[in-house]
């Protein structure tokens, strides 16, 4: 979703994902600083996003099955265009594209402002 958004909304024709095109010049999705595959990890929900509204709390512990996240270079461009990161780690690294299998089948995803 993030790669297609970068290509079609931001005009980044060469946008790629590091898992499928690790040597690409324009990586929108890059490896996380550490893999979260199979781990529980606290997620800070970004205020005023749909995820924060649905959860009704400031943070949650989630089970993760991902090793990639939104490139820090792309986050400001995405947010300026209206696509917000809805959950980050305690250091602010975005998990926008990660598939989070949460308790009760909740899922964290990038969310646009309501």
3D structure, described in words:
The chain is α+β, with helices and mostly antiparallel strands and 114 residues long. The protein has one domain (2-112): 3-Layer(aba) Sandwich (Rossmann fold). The chain has three helices and nine strands. The chain has a four-stranded antiparallel β-sheet with strand order 7-3-4-8. The longest helix is centred in the first third of the chain and has 7 residues, at 2-8. The radius of gyration is 14 Å and the shape is globular.
From the 3D structure, determine the CATH topology. Rossmann fold
**Mean of all residue-level pLDDT scores:** 79
The CATH architecture assignment turns out to be: 3-Layer(aba) Sandwich
Question: How is the biggest beta sheet arranged?
Answer: 4 strands, antiparallel
Low-confidence stretches: 96-114
The computed structural class is alpha+beta
**Could you spell the SSE succession in H and E letters?**
HEEEHEEHEEEE
Radius of gyration: 14 Å
Strands of the largest sheet, in order across it? 7-3-4-8
CATH class type: Alpha Beta
- Could you tell me the strand content as a percent range? 25-35%
Summary, kept brief:
This protein is an alpha+beta fold.
Key words describing this protein structure:
disordered C terminus, 9 strands, 17% helix, Rossmann fold, four-stranded antiparallel sheet, alpha+beta
List strands and helices in order, with pairings.
Layout lengths: L1 H7 L6 E3 L8 E6 L7 E7 L4 H6 L3 E6 L3 E3 L4 H6 L2 E2 L2 E2 L11 E2 L9 E2 L2
Parallel strand pairs: 1-2
Antiparallel strand pairs: 2-5, 3-4, 3-7, 4-8, 6-9
């Amino acid at each position: 979703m993030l790669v297609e958004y970068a290509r079609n909304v931001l005009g980044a024709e060469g946008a790629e994902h590091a898992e499928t095109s690790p040597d690409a010049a324009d990586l929108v999705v890059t490896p996380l600083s550490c893999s979260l595959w199979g781990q529980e990890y606290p997620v800070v929900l970004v205020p005023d996003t749909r995820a924060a509204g649905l959860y009704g709390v400031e943070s949650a512990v989630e089970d993760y099955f991902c090793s990639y996240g939104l490139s820090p270079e792309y986050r400001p461009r995405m947010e300026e265009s209206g696509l917000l990161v809805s959950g980050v780690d305690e250091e602010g690294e975005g998990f926008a594209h990660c598939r989070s299998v949460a308790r009760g089948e909740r899922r964290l995803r990038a969310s646009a402002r309501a």
